[in-house]
Amino acid sequence: MAITREQVERTAALSYLELEPAELETFTVQLSAILDYMSQLDELDTSDVAPMSHSTLGEHVERTWREDAVRPSLGQEAATANAPEKFRGFFKVPSVITRPSSE
After folding, report:
1. pLDDT, tens digit, for every residue of 54-103?
2. Burial of 62 (0-12, 13-18, 19+ CB in 10 A)
3. Which end of the chain is more exposed for a tag (fewer CB within 10 A), N or C?
4. Beta-strand (E) ranges in 1-103?
5. Residue 44: strand pairing partners
6. How many domains does the chain have?
7. In Å, what is the CA distance from 13 to each residue of 8, 18, 83?
């Protein structure tokens, strides 16, 4: 399944990524190769394979689950100590709801 350059451009735009023409070509080739590789899974007979409800259930479940324990939190001051910007003890981040005007 090939992905088109237009699909890569659209995905980049939705992700607010600016790609150079060479990068568009590279990602188009790479993403097409990934989709071709994944399409090989369609050739497998999975009719006898039970659906999974969780990827960590199985023989190593003791490594993935732990008892919940109340522990002290890091605290706002320590958590935001290295933040590029902070406001009243919180991380200050750009808005994801509004897009800056390109005027």
Report:
1. 666 666 666 666 778 999 999 999 999 999 999 998 999 988 886 666 65
2. exposed
3. C
4. 86-87, 90-91
5. none
6. 1
7. 9, 7, 27
